[in-house]
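Pasting as-is:
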Amino acid sequence: MSSASTLAPASVRRAAYAAFVVSLIHVVFGAIVRITGSGMGCGDYWPKCYGHWIPPFERIDLIIEVTHRYLALALLLSIAALVITAWQHRSHVAVAGRGGVWNSARLSVLLWIAPALFGAVTVFAGNPAWATVVHKLLAVSLLAVLATAVVRAGGLGGDSIRSATGTAKAIGGTTAAAGMALVVVLLGGLTAKLPGAAVACAGFPLCGEGSLGGGGQHVQLTHRILAYLLVLHLISLPMIFRKRGEPKAVITAAWFGLVLGVLQIVWAGWMVTGGFPAVVRSLHQATGMFIWATAFVMAYLARIAAGRSVIASRAS
């Protein structure tokens, strides 16, 4: 049986893509909520905003926070569409088979509920830093599960990887990239949330004269050093993978990671030297999320190519 004949139906692939894109927008907007200090824009009210589903849009922090909540609803609807579409095609091997889309779709429902409920905990607890980090971890986990669904449906390189063969060595490099990206993203959320941490280092690329010192500076500096190591790692991967003859999908993801990594350094330099403008901080956070998604997909594709992860059509 050819890989093309066992790809998930186009409707499933479209639903998976839609849920993944909405999830990415939602988690990026969550970073904007933190950067602008809008986490309590709706006060102590949840899920309503000051007792209203559609509150009067009189303050920017309220608008940002309630928009984030509306995006959470849009994400729920897109996940529901994915689950329903996958259920309709449950007889297809690429949907309900081992390593199929159906398992990822069901898991995405649970991972939507978890951060949604924890969002209430965050509000009722007064939006502390630790709750923000946990909320972000749940959100990026959902993003990873939806990325898995897209790959299993044949998107993001999932179509070509079925017939490709990769080396086990690529698993180590891509997994390291994904692990480092996750830590850097979570540290970025902590840095944005802790009072003074985002602006604690006055210099670039390291902390220079005029830095604030204290715990905030240590968090900021740790975030920067790990980010630099991640970018250097991402820069090395495309050349290494090309030399080894890794699958095209893995190499393409590596090139995306390289470009995003370099772009992230540009944003970081601009952000620090430009006085930490909110727009550039938002671009910085958004690029970090794209790096995490790219690194995760790259690692998953490498595992499939090396035979370490099952994908439905490959196992049939």
